[in-house]
Amino acid sequence: MGETGQLNPAASSERLWTPWLLALALAAPSFAPLIGHYVGFWRMGLRPTGFIIYDSAYYLANAREQFDSGTFTALYSNAYSFDYASPRIYFQPLTFVLGALLDLTRADPGLVFALVGIVTAAICARVAVALFDRFGDRSERGGTLSFIAFFWGGGLFVLMGTLLSLLAPAPSSHSFDVANWWWFVRVADPAGGWWFLNLGRNLVLPTEALYHALFLGTIAAVVSRRFQLAAVLLATLSVSHPFTGLQLLAIVGAWSALELIVLRSRVVPTWFVVCVAILAALHVAYYLWFLPRFPEHRQLQKQWTLRWTLSFPQSLLAYGAVGVLALATLGTPARFRRAVSEWPNRLLLTWLGVSLVLENHELFVREPVQPLHFTRGYTWVALFLLGLPALSRFFRRLRDGQRRPVGWLAAAAVIAVLLSDNAAWLGATTTQGLGMRLGRDLPIDSLRQGFGLSRDERAVLAWMNKPQLAGRVVLSEDPKLGYLLTAYTPLRSWRSHYANTPWSSERRGELEAFFQQGKVADAWRTLPLLVVFRATTPWHDRMAGLTTDSINPAFENASYVAVQVGGAYSRIQEPTPP
Question: For the chain, what percent of residues have pLDDT higher than 70?
Fold first, then answer.
């Protein structure tokens, strides 16, 4: 869009560069944390898994569920229920793709996830290029800077942290305090920046890259009035993610109703509005009526009802820069009327309003369900596109002014501020992945990123894949092993993922009572168990309450001892780690 907000379909990406190569170039910075993860763990003598955050393994555990029984099933059960008969009530397209790739290639789960991530990042970047081209012109003066800011622009966390460190240094420091600066940046930005409050950072995770490709692709299709494609993408996102699917359904549904019912414009066809309403009804029925009929899922919903929120100061820091641009475009009554006279801008305003309500729904409901899940950069993108005319105009004036060198320096300073959040975050996460320190010791930071596996950990996971262990429930003293085994083996843990194990806190308490005191949960006496101790634990004493039989370990190495309870016993020699 230009000054008046008109669509600019003539701004073809073909005039500048091959769109896919451009998308790959723009997505390239998002691969830095993954590269740091692999290099860093190899340097530490550990096998990198490709799982750079805790939740990554969750998707591979679910993917295995569709094939672990020996035959393909379209629906999968909760991989973190110890019950192998847990109902198959879930489906996600990405889970199916990951499961099929695992079954066809027999490749390492983390490697499959990482490679899929590269593909989804490229797809998402290509869709983002197309969306930008619906509202901006990369070929105009200053268009390239605006385009780069769209991909990798952020908020004001780094700027504010820098100002505070310069103006109010710690009493013990008479100069710029790196520790205080990094403390502010990682604490102010929710979860150390891993909630991804702008666009580019979402390319780091395969899942978020896919969800954003579907979300942005739907918006681009609607703006191009390709409503059949929009309906397909919207339906795919609805079955892919409960939060993002609901968010996009609410945005498109509210905008469609505004156009068709309130304004009576001819922009949107009636059949599309009906389709969106049906999809919304199915979405709500599946997540709020069908799934809660199952006790395990009801328990999960209780565990997910968390007050994870974005505070008002955090919102200002996250959206302040793009918010100012949006105000510059819409800030006067005349500009606002001119903008809302064109339906793509009405779509952007609806997108912004719905997203702000959802990410702050703790203000309206008694028991909020993770409001932060509705951030993920969606609000930021809507604000950016609304403010794009002002940003493009600003860059043009700086470049075309009489004092051109000063204008170029000013443009460079502005783009540096816009990119600073993501530059700092990508640099810090990659540095941590490499196992290197950030200047000096920062006690609240981890020096490693994600999961790496030692030789002993790989050995016990390889052994757990033996057919004679099928159907056993694992009690693991090592929480990391208890979690990762669901992605690397067909076995199930008594307690695994902290949020997706039904009755997670109770399960954790039972494991702690057993491994520390030998106290046995009643349910274990009827289950075929595989008990995995750390090698330093007096496992004979712990097992006394579980069985009176004389037991020898079925597997042991320098780090772990595994004992079978129930069923036939057979000792298996430690295999060579994969």
Answer: 89
